[in-house]
Amino acid sequence: MIIDLRSDTVTKPTAEMRRAMAEAEVGDDVYREDPTVNRLEQRAAEILGKEAALFVPSGTMGNQIAVKVQTQPGQEVICEERSHIFNFEMGAMAAFSGCQARTIATEDGILSWDQIRERLRPGIYYYSRNSLIALENTHNMAGGTVYPQEVATEICDRAHELGLKIHLDGARVFNAATFLGRPVREVVAPFDSVMFCLSKGLGAPVGSLVAGTRRFAEEALRARKILGGGMRQAGVLAAAGLIALEQHPAKLAEDHRNARFLGEGLGRLPGLRLDLAKVQTNIVIFDVAGSGLAAAEFSARLKACGVLINPISDRQLRVVTHSDVTRQDCERALEGIEEVVQKSTPAGV
Q1: What is the overall mean pLDDT for the chain?
Q2: Among 229, 248, 267, which residue terminates a domain?
Q3: Which of 71, 126, 232, 242, by CA, is between 20 and 30 Å from 38?
Q4: Distance of alpha carbon 222 from alpha carbon 97, whole angstroms
Q5: pLDDT (mean) for 16-34
Q6: pTM for the structure as a whole
Q7: 3-class SS at 38?
Q8: CATH number of 111's domain
């Protein structure tokens, strides 16, 4: 049996999701006539406390729609240096919206208003203009770290005073809300737009939603069509998304507990290094340099043990827990990791 800890995108739809998909009431969503898609969008807007939401095929599309709607060509988008919107979306903000990124490096993926303020462009005509700030919560490549609510609120409030828009890449924002012990509508309340994924921790097979004001959603619909995201009988996908949205947020705390269990276990193994304070949600990043193996080789040896974990650099691997991984699976994964460590760690470490 393979234990897949590469990402929370690898989850399989539940039996209930499969039944709902087979029985979904559908229509043509390009005509806005798919009743199941319409229900999903309405319910997502209600849960997020936003005026309207739009179903999109992927989180990348949702993020790039938000950039397109809230910027003009030649403007800048401020984001964290390791953010998904900058690193893993193929330069789409430049290709699609004609914008450039102004990145800020942080220790834990969490920006502060002071850091942002220092990087704002002065109002001189020959500088590009700041238009949008994009935050990521939880922050994937920082290890699933979460914005303290007061930090996010301060950034939004100060930005709005200057006429700047704020987008939240909330691919895993329900994980953030679980960690904070707050309703997700409170977490996203200060933001002009928000994207979240159904197909990560919430366990649906396909899809994300982007939400904001009704005017934003109207413009987002046009941008989705330009990107080729207009789907027809998409209710077969939205049906699974409705179940994910209604039922799966309550299950995320277990994913977090499993990540903490793995983090604590990894921290006890020689040759491995991680910052347990950053294990806040369902992601664990650990350094294997002390084992004497490069991360890619460590990953390959783990695969031979039946454990899938992806390298994210020459030294680091990323573990992601999800609804298809049990505590017993985590125990077996640690056994496999320990086996690799024992066979590779240099003597004396």
Answers
A1: 96
A2: 248
A3: 71
A4: 13
A5: 97
A6: 0.96
A7: helix
A8: 3.40.640.10
